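Good morning C.,

I know you're traveling, so I'll keep this short. The sequence:
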Amino acid sequence: MVNRERLLAEFLRLVQIDSPSYQERELADRIRNLLAEIGLTVFEDQTASKINGQAGNLYARWPGTVAGPAILFCVHLDTVEPGRRIKPVIRGGAVYSDGRTILGADDKAGIAAVIEALRVVRERNLATPPVELIFTVAEEQGLVGAKHLDPELINASCGFVLDSDGPPGKIIVRAPSQDRIVVTVRGRAAHAGINPEEGINAIQAAARGIARLRLGRIDEETTANIGVIQGGLATNIVPEKVTVYGETRSLDDRKRAAVTQEIIRLFNEEVENAGGQVECEVEDLYPSFRLEPDHRVVQMAMRAAFRVGLAPRLAHSGGGSDANILNALGVPTANLSCGMQKVHSTGEFILIEDLVKSTELVLEIMKA
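The tokens, ready to paste straight into the viewer:
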């Protein structure tokens, strides 16, 4: 029932609308108009003013024709950089960018799938329960928009986020919590050539701390990373200050907390041994979630996948999504793959057939 040509055309239009995080206004307006044309009630919240962005989260409702609990679908509007002036290219049954930018299938493949599914529901007068939609902003910045969702505006008993990579059929049932760690190391400035003995090199002190850290994959559930180091003024100055940015993630909240505390302890030990001072800030970005295989929302996704000819597969993710927030709000939510591959890179692409199958899956869940 999916109109392949219309779906692809809409996807191509969407990816050409610039929507980097905090700058989603044009795309939000496009989505709002499309949903209104289909017949949905649309509401935008006040998140823009809270996060200093251009647009807030969009909430939309399709009344349905079958009594029963509402089903929620959630996608995000923003993209990572480089994501401006995207030029999609169709090659070998797939859509790529021209190589200078990302494609933006993360998450515009999910957006296109939801919109096409609703168009089919309206055109075919298909029986569905009530359907709720949420389009979040600044998801790529740590689920910022989702953290400002108003639970009073969500009536659904279960939900599906369309924001996982790979061919459709994958169902994310576990995802990690994440800590953002900022370590500021202070030493003492001095001239690097005249009196370096009087200085305390903040970069060296930080490096000693980093050298002791367990980074990368700690175990099958836990990871840690140092991603950014900023500091120093010139090569002839012993650096007085350096800031180190890192993260920890784990499917097990206790493991994540333990690794975070280990990182803080080791930085403190090494910096103090070097005669410097250290300040550590930890931000809990989002909670983990876990859905059992027999949970209703998981079974709904699996049955729908079978009906459209997909082989459902349950998986866990190393990254967070809006599903983490929705589960924390009390709405059991699975994260579904929607065909995007090599996301967050200029090699990002999506097979057209996967875009179609993802839309068929969404439609089948709506009909459930």
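Safe travels,
E.
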